[in-house]
Batch of 2 targets.
Target 1
Amino acid sequence: MRTLTHTLRGAVLNRLDRAVSRVAVREHRLIGTAMLRIVIGVGTVMYCLADYGSRQFFWGPNSYNAPAEAAKSIPHLGFSLFLWSNSQLWFELVFHATILVAVAFTIFGGRALTLVMAVFMWSLYYRNQDILEGGNNLVEILVIFLVFTVSNAYFAPGAKRRRERLRTDERPTISTATHNLAAYLIVFQTAVLYLTSGYWKIAGKVWQDGVAMYYISRASGFQMFSAYAHWMNNAYLGTAICYFTIFIELAFPFAILSSRAWVRKSVTVSVELLHLGIMVFMGLVCFGLLMIGADCACLRDEDYRSLWARARRLSTATAGRLQWSVRPAPEEQHA
Amino acid sequence: MTEIPDKRIPAAVPWRVRAFVVAAILPVALFTAACLVYNAPASPAQIRLAGSVSDVMDPYFSQDWQLFAPTPGTSNDLLYLEVTLRQAGATKVLQTEPLEIEGAIDRTPRSMRLNPTKLPGVILAFQENAANYTQLAGQIQANYPPSQRAAQMKALLKNFDPTFRELQRFLSVRAASLYPDARIIAVRGTFKEQAIVPFSERYADPAPKEPITGVLQTAWMAYVPGVAD
């Protein structure tokens, strides 16, 4: 009986250790979280600079959105550093600190800087909620999870050294487990967004009828190019884009779970192209950028490595062909 | 026969790591479940759980992804500005003709396509609030007896007071930029909408002209000087 208990305990512990090891031995999605970091930083800088000249109007102490009114619209437990004082100096200090922190966060990353970034980003968004585009809602959540990740193992000063240290340490650690659980939450939250968004679209009549793009292209606040409205007159093109959007949004959560790399990569790239289209044709640049950042976090490190290898092969082949095409003809060489 | 050790799994996981992972998985699982329920379409089960789920999600994880799947509007909004003012050196008070200001604001992002301004968002927020106010005011008229309507309307106006104060300041800035040399006294906004030509009539010749319908007209609001200075 004692031997049986001992064996059972051993088996349970063995299983637990296997599960714990999967979470705590090696950091996953290091490239994706680094890309998300860069996109959030760049997106925040662009958000501030887009209306830098009108910063008094949007966020200043004499804004049309008066600080007292803005404070009333902040939910319970919400905060904004901008509303701590109504002085012009404080506003300029916090606004420019937001830009500087975003630049530092883009370059360096790291947990402490991510926390500071989260505080400034939340403050900026809560100062004026009229002008938010929707992408802010996702990054407000993702930046909390990002605090717990190693977001500077790529594309940051000292990243190579940091990666080597992570690779050499094969012991299960709390830090690694924290990173992986936070990375899971980032991917999960993004997947829920697409699933919900796809669900609401498929339940909407104009999306079912394939005419949603026609009406979107005619919304006066989102018309960046007249050609866009002209193209959406075409019933085939408009319907195809409507159905494609619904399909990839509903497919996204399942695709990122797929063991087939080409499924993960093709659906993620499709979603990114969708957001690129929104940036170009609807002018929602910060929104599109932040969404692309969230999509980036959903690909695995090996996906990026294979995409990088393919891009290099393609560039080598293209360079080879270009060299071939500019090489003089044999007759000319002879002459 | 000797067992080949699995190199991916270290010989022993420290107890503190085991304990941490088990403890950390609990809030992660809680968030996972709460997030799914929070975003689920309204159903009897979802409604029953909504209160507890909101305790977990609000305010830092509150989310609304219906924004990402809008049923696109089938009309475009218009905002007209009227101003009462005194021209420099004149004593007579003039009232300007209603001037549509939203079209010009909606076109501003095109001047910087790489990183467009967020200005149209301000008008969009006002339009949404105006539509909400009109809808709620209509419900009061339809559902309350005449004796209670005035009190209900007063309460509604109080709720929307911050929005109208914002609008007052916003229209003051626009008026000041439109009539820089005049002494502005008051501003008034009128929200209207114009239906988009239906998809089925997009090639009709002559092109159909959709009617403009009124949504809400504000009272005259005193000009607020010094906004955005």
Target 2
Amino acid sequence: MNWTWFHKLASPPHFYRLAGRIAPWFGWPALLLIVMGLYGGLLLAPPDYQQGEAFRIVYVHAPAAWMSMFIYGTMAIAAAIGLIWRMKLAHAVAAAAAPVGAWFTFAALVTGSLWGKPMWGTWWQWDARMTSELILLFLYLGLIALRASIDDRDRADRASGVLALVGVINLPIIHYSVYWWNTLHQGATIAKFGKPSMPWEMLWPLLAMFLGFTLYFGAVLMTRLRGEVIRRERDASWLREELAR
Amino acid sequence: MQTPIAQVMALIYRGDLVLAFRRWEQIAQPVVFLTMVTTLVPLALSPELGELREIAGGVLWIAALLAALLGLEFLYRTDHADGTLEQLLLSGQPLALIALAKTAAHWTASGLPLVLVSPLLAISLGVPADALCVLMISLALGTGILSALGAVGAALTLGLRRGSVLLSLLVLPLAMPALIFGARAVDLAIHGEVARGPLLLLGAMFVLAVTLSPLAVAAALRISQE
């Protein structure tokens, strides 16, 4: 098997151009899917028989919550690659992904709270999912803060990598203990809407939004990675030539 | 001829303890902090023992976690400042086991005093005598988990400006599962129920933290010394 393509990924000039070329391939389908999903979800799908129109926030909420976990996983894998093979670009991926993940987590929390107001009658409920999402936000903030407070870039990369791995091991433990804690204290006060299988007209916009958000992350990641490469290689001569073109 | 690692660990453990007991105020501070936070609770809420008993488990656990955080930043700071850490790295001994010995010493000097003083505070909050044993076991495991996780944080933030605030930010979310099960176990015991389930889970977390965190500490220490 030919591994040249893989080794070429580690070369900043090659990757810088590649990321610039890939980004639109993520970006345009993402835009299309999100517009389709929003139209289908907000206008075409019928209102829920229990929750009425308020259920429509799920079209933003669920994909955002999915992204918050997906990005943490991406970051941990990138950090592991960076630590094991000392690949600087993998660390750059982790650095570029962290703030995006934190914002998606924040978005999931805000939309969850907006949904909670009409459903539970309160902006915040110590519900298992919201609590573990909040702890996830703390983990993201810790990572970003650690990276920001180390000046030496190489040390910042590797220290955040170790922290990301520690976090990803703890994530399932935190998740399940919060669920256990919650079922114990709250019982079934929140009538979790008995989930009948979603009808197709409700489901397809949701799937479109999931895919759209994931592709959007791909596009943002590529763009942020280009910025990250510029910051890391600011003294390199290839970059001066590249930017002068 | 290398010194056997068991001997190295014993020497490090003893050395750290000697140093800790020579500066007894460092040992006393977390205990005083825990006592003061516990005193704040009746003042802020109610002197009624029946009401205090209801929240005693949670209060003692939160106060103990915060108290145990206090000393964490000193875990590697002096070794880092005077070059001992470099010597440990160069010694050729397995760094993870050295880190384990240092964590154990840190727990003995900071976690154990909290465990020993906790029954007194618990009685002052109206906790029945039957529950004291569960309280001490849960706190012993909990402070152990915090020392193990905190060692990772301490190694990662070594030599950073405002490292101590960052350290709490990194360690507290990771310690939340321990808090859930620990406080729950104490709560069950206060109400005269069997606390075995949460205690066993807490024990499992302790074993996991003690086995895995020294590896992360070793990696973090290597990173900090490059």
